[in-house]
Design goal:
Number of helices: 12
Number of domains: 2
Largest sheet: 6 strands, mixed
Strand order of the largest sheet: 11-6-1-2-3-12
CATH topology of the largest domain: Aminopeptidase
Structural class: alpha/beta
CATH class of the largest domain: Alpha Beta
Strand content: 15-25%
Radius of gyration: 23 Å
Helix content: 25-40%
CATH architecture of the largest domain: 3-Layer(aba) Sandwich
Number of strands: 19
Shape: globular
Distance between the termini: 41 Å
Length: 419
């Protein structure tokens, strides 16, 4: 495998080949395999791959690092292109989310949790009804995609990363290509979308274009779920390239990709902070899941009870049953109605019971009034709707919590990372 690679780090990546790359059995010292095992646990989340690749470049340039001090949620959106139904040569300046990965960096638990949400997942999109979640970005760009995902999962994402198809292709080319195992011949032609996939079974080294085709293929019985697995394989292969010492010689190429093809509200220092947190995790520090559900009429139908349990554990480290026993009252005025609807959707996504929504003079900021129950639930709600304050309002009757929704949009960046 190593012998097939060029010694010139600035040379273009190898072309896609139909000749299998057979790594063959090779004796390795135990220490080598320990490193392999450790890196394999880094997982397959696109968010972590992007962060680490960027960190390698930025650490070399900036020589900077800082610890992650509190849980940080980041939404990674891999974008496709949207063509006209009448004319495939017309490309609209909008994109759907071809890949959607919810990531949370948890310093208390020393883990990074990565949840892949299939692009065909059925979800409610504010202002557009219920349909596939990937349409949110086409209708409202990143802001609507983030809002939709927050309402759907019951998790707030103060930070995001968007990467285009071209960006991922260039990123793979920047590291010199990736090695993946193709389980079966993949053949698919879509003249309408200009997509032509012809990849042979075997262990192969792929350049950016072929790796993207491998990750996009979905025309088998597993459909989008099979594609999620192939996306994970590509991301894992990228991480494998990252651990090679020669990656430091490709710093300029990686930085160029980040500057030209990746959009994020994370600063370079924040990216380095999260990346180094991931690099330093012990074996088992990466937890990867795909949103539970089932196929139905061209959509991925969520398994609500399992989804709630998974989200509660991954993003809150909490018991879903305790959340489900919590009763909530929402108080708002007409000016804060949209924010109240978002709050209701997010609390319902976590399984909390909304006992009533009433109208009253709304405050300028959102507050969570705790009447009784586990105070940690109030903290979860405040983090979900934040910035929000927690107020003691102990009573013996009524709901467990009262949410006073202020006349501001629910959510927004509130997690402290170095700027």
């Amino acid at each position: 495998m190593m012998g097939a690679m060029t010694a010139d780090p600035e040379a273009p990546p190898p072309p896609e080949t139909d000749v299998p790359v057979d790594p063959g059995p090779r004796p390795r010292p135990r220490r080598f395999w320990a490193r392999i095992a450790r890196w394999s646990m880094f997982g397959i989340g696109g968010i972590f791959t992007l962060l680490v690749l960027g960190a390698v470049a930025m650490v070399a340039v900036l020589g900077w690092s800082s610890p992650v001090k509190q849980r940080t949620n980041v939404l990674i959106m891999g974008l496709d292109r949207t063509v006209s139904d009448q004319n495939p040569n017309i490309v609209y300046p909008v994109s759907r989310t071809d890949t959607l990965i919810a990531a949370t960096f948890d310093p208390a638990d020393h883990r990074v949790y990565l949840l892949s949400v299939p692009r065909d997942t059925r979800a409610s999109i504010p202002g557009h009804g219920t349909t596939k979640i990937n349409a949110a970005h086409a209708w409202g760009g990143g802001p609507l995609a983030i809002r939709t995902t927050e309402n759907f999962l019951g998790v707030r994402f103060p930070y995001y990363i968007e990467i285009t198809e071209r960006g991922l292709v260039r990123l793979i080319d920047a590291v010199g290509g990736v090695n993946v195992r193709i389980e079966k011949d993949l053949n698919y032609d879509d003249n309408w979308d200009g997509l032509h996939i012809h990849l042979k079974k075997g262990y192969r080294r792929l350049g950016g274009k072929a790796a993207m085709e491998f990750a996009r293929f979905r025309h088998d019985p597993l459909g989008d779920i099979g594609r999620v697995k192939r996306q994970q394989d590509v991301m894992s292969a990228l991480l494998d390239e990252l651990r090679r010492p020669r990656i430091v010689l490709r710093v300029n190429r990686i930085l160029t990709v980040f500057q030209e093809d990746i959009q994020t509200n994370l600063s370079q220092k924040q990216l380095v902070t999260l990346a180094l947190f991931g690099i330093r995790l012990p074996s088992g520090g990466f937890v990867r899941e795909t949103l539970p559900g089932r196929f139905g009429s061209g959509e991925w139908l969520p398994d609500v009870p399992r989804d709630r349990d998974l989200v509660a554990r991954m993003f809150y480290g909490f018991d879903a049953e305790t959340l489900a026993r919590t009763t909530v009252e929402i108080v708002t005025d007409s000016a804060g109605r949209d924010a109240a609807l978002d709050a209701e959707a997010r609390l319902t996504a976590l399984g909390m019971r909304i006992v009533r929504v009433r109208t009253a003079a709304g405050p300028d900021s959102t507050a969570v009034v705790v009447h009784r129950g586990d105070p940690r639930v109030a903290e979860i709600v405040a983090s979900l709707l934040g910035p929000a304050s927690v107020i003691d309002g102990t009573t013996t009757d009524g709901p467990d919590l009262t949410i006073q929704v202020g006349n501001v949009t629910v959510g927004g960046p509130a997690i402290a990372l170095p700027r």
